[in-house]
Amino acid sequence: MIVRYRCGVEQFKASALTHMLVVADVQRSRDWYMNVLDAQLFGEYGGTSIVLELLGNWILLVNGGGPDAGKPEVTLAPPADPARPSAQLIFRVTDCIGLYELLSGRGAEFLAVPHIRDGETRAFFRDPDGHLFEISELT
């Protein structure tokens, strides 16, 4: 049953945007995000979710799970096929090649070396669960 409320709100407003990523192992992912991307730990909750701060944004790492009252037909799971992503996070950077070298040295596994396309130098990499990331420099 859907209950409709009249509250006088006429514009969408929020105080923050959190990017939730479903992962197989929150501790392994926490370590990767902190060690590779310099994310800062904000909180850990029951061993099943971790909140990180990354470049002024929140990243919520969670274990998968089945439907519940708020999402009765939704099952959360890490990417089933990393070669077919439905989303990616893009970082605008000032030195794509230098950052490629830094992140590679920290354990990021890039899909290919940086390449130039349509006025950008770009490189793509994945986290341990296959979520896709891009570093992009305007050239």
Describe the structure in your own words.
By secondary structure, the chain is α+β, with helices and mostly antiparallel strands. It is about 15% helix and about 35% strand. The model has no long low-confidence stretch (mean pLDDT about 95). The chain folds into two domains: about 15-75, 2,3-Dihydroxybiphenyl 1,2-Dioxygenase, domain 1; about 80-139, 2,3-Dihydroxybiphenyl 1,2-Dioxygenase, domain 1 (Roll), CATH 3.10.180.10. The strands form two sheets. Strands 5, 6, 7, 8 and 9 form a five-stranded mixed β-sheet that branches. It has a four-stranded mixed β-sheet with strand order 1-4-3-2, with helices on one face. It has two helices and nine strands.
Question: SSE layout and pairings?
Answer:
Layout: E1 18-23, H1 26-37, E2 40-45, E3 49-54, E4 57-63, E5 88-92, H2 96-105, E6 109-110, E7 115-117, E8 120-126, E9 132-138
Task: Report a brief summary of the structure.
This protein is of the alpha+beta class and 139 residues long. The chain has 2 domains: 15-77, Roll (2,3-Dihydroxybiphenyl 1,2-Dioxygenase, domain 1); 79-139, Roll (2,3-Dihydroxybiphenyl 1,2-Dioxygenase, domain 1), CATH 3.10.180. The chain has helices spanning 26-37, 96-105, and strands spanning 18-23, 40-45, 49-54, 57-63, 88-92, 109-110, 115-117, 120-126, 132-138.
